């Protein structure tokens, strides 16, 4: 699943924060809008107040002018003109003050102000003409009165006009106030409506998306709870819920792949169990390999496989079984040395599996196998060591005709498979060995019983003859006859004793109780003694012994045991090569004594040369010759206990040479 | 003296010639020499308040009941006295304008027109005019 990119601007919390900021801005805007829309009204109300002040002043002035006119009217019948003048001036003072106040209270640009200023001019003229009247009383009174009247009229006219202008101003303000009375309401309502629309639209959009996202998530959870792990919830927005949905999808994908992996692991474990169960039935190596290849290849869906086993000398790799590969392809590789650079030898040598996921990897690692690899029947391959304990007994290769990824669980399974194969193979090998051992034991028992019985039969016959003669009352049994019988007894008992002694030796060797009693002596003397001791028997068998020895071969040896070895070799020569000469050569090479016993008997075939040093092993065509097949085994064990070695050089029909190499002191080893 | 006698005579003859007639006088400093009926109406009703040279117009009316007032109302304003009074009542209320001052005699009229540079008034034609005023010609249009 691809990585989904999320933008911080899509965040729900950020958007909610933006909405809250927008609400705050709306509130401020609303307040400002309502204030601005009412501002005209506020100033209008204030203007009315100031206009009223002016108007009252103007009214006062008009009143004053009326008083002045009354005063002048009283003048005709008056006695004291000065009182009238005083009264006129006083009232005029009030008028002027009122008009001045009114002018001061007026707006600079207002019509009323202009009119009032003109009115003030007229009032001054009126006063001037009145004063003329007071001081020039007798001169054209009526004319002067009319002139005065004229100024009075002018003044009043201006003041009235100002009053009307003020009234118009007030009317205008009222009209405006009336016209604007709904403005704050309209502004408030409009802003509220926009705000409401915004909140509803935005809120609905957000809640809708959230609802859908949660709905999708819930549905996905339901699907998952019903076991559908393949369902992926759609990611609507790249907000927090989108991220949550994405994470949920990833989690479910991960669980899904985990479950698939688990299932495959379970499947593989089952297969391993089945293989184990089938291995328990398989006793032969062949059968084990067959089961391994059949089950293993199927489990990993591979196309072919090869079993390569290391030989006993651990220097050759042998292809023992293969599946899915044509016979010709493996012809060249039937058997090849371990030190040849190949993946199989590497795996066996380093005890480590090798995996090649495609042909290129293989060729890169083994460029010299390029031509072979091109012709091979694989693209991917796993080479697995067959390890038992600390030893590698071979390797298994699992081949694929397609490129193949080996993940951890694949590798673990293949290693487990190879380990099981190795164990099963090992068991089968042990089984083979055990079977062989049992066969050898059975053979030994038959031989031993036969051999032990052989001296007993003549003994029993002789005893029966003797006892019959005694029963018959033969009083005189000749002395020679008796001696002959005794000698025969002795011979047969000696043979029995030898057989039992050999068996005891084998038992000692097996239980590791073969102890050497070392003493210093001359090896040449010892051999000479033995030859002298057996001279009679050798002569009887018409065997001529040629003894060649260096004079002084002194070392630390177990005399009895070495005599036993020599006697054994001589006895063998007596048994297998009667009437033919034997040569015994003793020599010293540095600090090693070399004893060679050479006969001219039938010889031993190459393939049997190793075998004859083992327990209960005898040369095949030796049925008519007695013996347990233990002599050479015991001899080789004695020599090995002396840190030496015994070997044979022989060819069929050309006699045999047994060569003993033995160090003069126990501490140093023979080469 | 001669000129005065001549003028008096001239005036006497002209009044006789047209019967009761009306003349308009202005301050002698006034440079306007001719005025129409419409202009007179505008001046009287204070629709126009200045002379072309910028002087404020000061119209003087005559008291009711005189022949010359009747002539003025009939020939110039073409309204009755009652209509004119009603107009001024209205004007006082709505514009603050008051009616021109009503003068009882020709002499007072002449006196006042002579005292105000923008003054204008009317007389019956037999009146003898002093230096401070002059007759202004009235045209129909």
Description:
The complex is a heterodimer of chains A (671) and B (141). Chain A has helices at 12-74, 81-105, 111-135, 141-179, 183-225, 240-281, 285-300, 343-350, 359-365, 370-375, 408-472, 479-510, 523-533, 535-540, 559-576, 631-641, and strands spanning 304-310, 316-323, 335-337, 354-356, 380-388, 391-400, 518-522, 545-549, 554-558, 582-589, 592-598, 645-650, 656-663. By secondary structure, chain A is an alpha+beta fold. Chain A folds into three domains: 12-181, Up-down Bundle (Four Helix Bundle (Hemerythrin (Met), subunit A)); 282-436, Beta-Lactamase (2-Layer Sandwich); 514-663, 2-Layer Sandwich (Heat Shock Protein 90), CATH 3.30.565. A six-stranded antiparallel β-sheet of chain A has the order 3-2-1-6-5-4, with helices on both faces. A five-stranded mixed β-sheet of chain A has the order 8-10-11-13-12, with helices on one face. In chain A, strands 7-9 form a two-stranded antiparallel sheet. In chain A, helix 12 crosses helix 16 (631-641). The model of chain B is unreliable at 12-18 (pLDDT under 50). Chain B has helices at 2-18, 37-44, 67-77, 81-94, 106-115, and strands spanning 22-27, 34-36, 58-59, 61-62, 102-103, 119-124, 133-139. Chain B has a single domain (2-139), classed as D-Maltodextrin-Binding Protein, domain 2 (3-Layer(aba) Sandwich), CATH 3.40.190. Chain B is α/β, with parallel strands linked by helices and 141 residues long. The termini of chain B are far apart. Chains A and B meet through helix 4 of A and helix 5 of B.
Please give the count of helices of chain A. Answer: 16
CATH superfamily of chain B: Periplasmic binding protein-like II
The CATH C-level class name of chain B? Alpha Beta
What's the mean pLDDT score of chain B?
85
**Helix and strand composition category of chain A:** alpha+beta
Number of strands of chain A: 13
CATH homologous superfamily caption of the largest domain in chain A: IL-4 antagonist (De novo design) like domain
At CATH level 3, the topology of chain B is D-Maltodextrin-Binding Protein, domain 2
